[in-house]
Design a protein that fits this description.
By secondary structure, the protein is α+β, with helices and mostly antiparallel strands. The protein folds into two domains: about 60 residues, 434 Repressor (Amino-terminal Domain); about 150 residues, no CATH class. It is about 30% helix and about 35% strand. The two termini are about 30 Å apart. InterPro entries: Cro/C1-type_HTH (IPR001387), DUF5680 (IPR043735), Lambda_DNA-bd_dom_sf (IPR010982).
Length: about 220
């Protein structure tokens, strides 16, 4: 994650508009907008103020980070991890993210989606609508190996389900839990933050319409082998 992405994430996590953040620092809103678009960078004095506002070290604020993931397999079986991640991303993109067809409900009034490829099986099942909770799981040769629980809600009438699907469709191997760390389309912005790796993690995703948060979802999970 680069500086401009990190700044936008932090500002939204602290529920500050560009104008409010600019006021705290003593600069114009346009200056903050340029920082977040990558058209300019703050000087050292402004970086120190940002560090104090967001309670983050200068090193963590400015250093570009790469989000990574890992799932433990026996030594020498790196290809199994790659195969697992390839399958998981394909399964996710073929399910809810693509408005995939639901299978027969496993529980009363649940929404269930499934994807299989050889020895791999992926199931996603959730309850609710505007407020929802669910679980994703992966099986290898009928043995459960990985699971993720999630719960979320829409917060505003400007929430867009299609935008959320687009975000989830753009998930990556580097951050294969929900969507990418940052995704934008028009007036919508998506953020996803994760602590941990594929073996044990927790995270949160949010969608903003302009400066208004319209959706949030919390998730956690990991390896169960």
């Amino acid at each position: 994650m680069n500086f401009q992405e990190k700044l936008m994430l932090l500002r939204n996590q602290y529920r500050l508009s560009q104008e409010e953040l600019a006021g705290r620092i003593g600069i114009s809103r346009q200056a903050v907008a340029k920082w977040e678009s990558g058209k300019a960078v703050p000087d050292i004095n402004n970086l120190i103020q940002l560090s104090n506002i967001f309670k983050i070290s200068l090193d963590r604020l400015v250093k570009e980070e790469e989000s990574g993931c890992s799932l433990e397999f026996p030594t020498g079986e790196k290809k199994k991890k790659e195969d697992f991640l390839d399958f998981l991303l394909t399964a996710k993109k073929s399910g809810y993210a693509s408005h995939g067809a639901e299978i027969a409900s496993g529980r009363p009034d649940s929404h269930d989606l499934s994807f299989a490829d050889g020895k791999y099986l992926y199931l996603d099942t959730y309850l609710g609508g505007e407020k929802f909770a669910g679980e994703e799981g992966v099986w290898i040769e009928d043995k459960p190996v990985w699971a993720m629980n999630y719960a979320g809600r829409t917060l505003h009438e400007n929430f867009s389900g299609d935008f959320l699907c687009n975000c989830l469709y753009h998930t990556t191997k580097e951050l294969p839990f929900r969507g990418p760390s940052l995704y934008k389309e028009g007036d919508y912005t998506y953020h996803c933050t994760v602590q941990g790796d594929m073996d044990w993690f927790q995270g949160k995703e949010e969608i903003f319409y302009l400066e208004v948060k319209v959706y949030e979802c919390f998730f956690h999970g990991g390896s169960i082998t």
